[in-house]
Specification:
Layout lengths: L4 H13 L16 H10 L8 E5 L8 H6 L16 H4 L4 E5 L6 H13 L23
């Protein structure tokens, strides 16, 4: 990998946060390896046997991002012919890596803040919270 002082600092931080349940903010310019750091954290965490789901928020149309992240209920909007699990549900028990969060619409950033604070969310068109405090255990209802 490398032996620079900067890389050693990053690897030490990876080792210190990996065993925690903390939300981690990884900062860096495009192409500096943020996703590699996320994989390293996940691989050294108790969640390593569970999924790591990567989402490039800039690559998803703003009108679809909420459904992509949180899922949707059947009938929530035109074309929602069945319930769909979002990326947060797909990552249940594991890790979700959100790249380019700054490109999300403001309303989605607000919903994301709730997920980070409360550890729960609702599917688009839903009224039932989904999260560890709501009895969610990784199955589709």
């Amino acid at each position: 990998m490398g032996t620079s002082a900067g890389l050693k600092t990053v690897l030490n931080r990876v080792a210190s946060v990996a065993p925690t349940e903390s939300t981690v903010l990884i900062l860096g310019e495009t192409g500096t390896g943020k996703e590699l750091v996320a994989h390293a954290i996940h691989g050294r965490s108790p969640r390593c046997s569970r999924p790591l789901v990567s989402v490039n928020c800039a690559a998803i149309q703003p009108s679809l991002i909420a459904s992509e992240l949180f899922g949707h209920e059947k009938g929530a909007f035109t074309g929602a012919l069945q319930q769909r699990r979002g990326r947060f549900e797909l990552a249940e028990g594991g890790t979700i890596f959100l790249d380019e969060v700054g490109d999300l619409p403001a309303e989605t950033q607000i919903a994301l803040l709730r997920v980070l604070q409360e550890r729960e969310f609702e599917r688009v068109g839903g009224s039932q919270p989904i999260g560890p405090t709501c009895g969610y255990r990784g199955h589709q209802s």
